[in-house]
Design goal:
Distance between the termini: 45 Å
Oligomer: single chain
Order of helices and strands: EEHH
Largest sheet: 2 strands, antiparallel
Strand content: 5-15%
Number of strands: 2
Number of domains: 1
Helix content: 55-70%
Number of helices: 2
């Protein structure tokens, strides 16, 4: 009965813990999704740290952080879309193939 409350049951496949998904996003969107998630994470972390380091104790931290994040995120998103393929080409020169 306890299993009836779980939405997805984890299973061991290829020695990794994963969950079955019935609908996945098409592979052609992988690069955009990677840039979207990576840029959001990077912009959130960096803007939060910078605002925290430079704000006064009484300053509205979350308001300033959100404003900085909203400004930084599109910039980081475009930068990742441009820079990631170049970095991959550079790494191909130095890292052996599988």
């Amino acid at each position: 009965m306890a299993d009836s409350f779980m939405l997805a049951k984890p299973y061991l496949g290829n020695h990794k813990l994963s969950t079955k998904m019935s609908n996945k996003i098409a592979y052609r969107y992988r690069t955009l999704l990677f840039a979207f998630i990576m840029s959001a994470s990077t912009a959130m972390i960096v803007s939060g740290i910078i605002i925290f380091m430079h704000s006064k104790p009484h300053a509205p931290f979350f308001t300033q952080w959100f404003a900085a994040f909203i400004t930084a995120w599109p910039i980081v998103f475009v930068a990742i879309l441009i820079i990631a393929p170049l970095v991959n080409k550079l790494l191909n020169l130095f890292v052996e193939d599988r």
